[in-house]
Design a protein that fits this description.
mainly alpha; 9 helices; disordered C terminus
Length: about 240
């Protein structure tokens, strides 16, 4: 899958080269490109929800160009920023959720393809997809690069766009159903792979505060001669 995505990405780069040059000359903000790409991806999710699976696949495949364009323009214009990376990652989650939510709505409402089992699988895929991104983000916060697993975002976008674009609801929708099942299963598998990767990377590592010499606690000061258990002094005051 990685080699397939790399070949697709090289093809994308050749196709978008003139577009990237135009955007660089126009000094278009990379964040603007990210926003437009997200809006287009959300529209692909809406198209999926209405049952136009093939059209949604083509739209999603074309809007995947924005994932490459924003980074390319940012590097060429020297406008790569920490906020830009954060903004891009955040909108990626919006886009992923919108596409899978569209498929969930399709399986919940389609007269011909309504399926509770596939609706449940799609919802599981949404959770698994967000777990994939969360586990990497949490690992990054610990200083660990957990970019591992069988189904990362480029592969996920390819799986959600190319088969749908070419096959749509072929074989009575079984092609799409297979893709949804594979996507959900590999998303959870990737999340587990990242959890295990972080576990191996941190095995034997001291936890917060571990290894620090703890100073002996100072002995509690002695109670005054007339002091007793809590509340006794107050009781004596009331009796006086």
């Amino acid at each position: 899958m990685k080699r397939v995505w790399e070949s697709i990405q090289r093809g994308y780069l050749r196709v978008i080269e003139p577009v990237a040059d135009f955007l660089v000359r126009r000094r278009v903000s990379p964040n603007t490109i990210t926003t437009v790409g997200t809006v287009c991806t959300v529209s692909a999710g809406v198209i999926f929800a209405t049952g136009h699976i093939s059209l949604g696949g083509w739209v999603l495949g074309l809007t995947a160009l924005f994932d490459v364009l924003d980074g390319t323009v940012a590097r060429r214009t020297g406008r790569s920023t920490t906020f830009g990376a954060f903004y891009d990652s955040t909108l990626d989650r919006v886009a992923d959720g919108a596409v899978l939510a569209g498929l969930a709505v399709f399986y919940a409402t389609s007269p011909a393809h309504k399926s509770v089992p596939l609706l449940v699988v799609t919802l599981a895929g949404i959770i698994g997809t967000f777990l994939v991104s969360y586990t990497r983000a949490r690992a990054d916060s610990l200083g660990i690069d957990a970019k591992v697993g069988v189904m990362q975002r480029p592969e996920r976008v390819t799986l959600l766009s190319a088969p749908q674009a070419f096959f749509g609801l072929a074989l009575h929708g079984w092609v799409l159903a297979t893709i949804v099942v594979v996507l959900a299963a590999t998303a959870w598998l990737t999340a587990v792979q990242r959890i295990l990767f972080v576990h191996r990377a941190t095995s034997g590592a001291p936890g917060p505060g571990a290894g620090q010499d703890s100073a002996p606690s100072a002995p509690a000061p002695p109670l005054p001669p007339e002091a007793g258990p809590p509340g006794v002094a107050a009781s004596h005051a009331l009796l006086r």
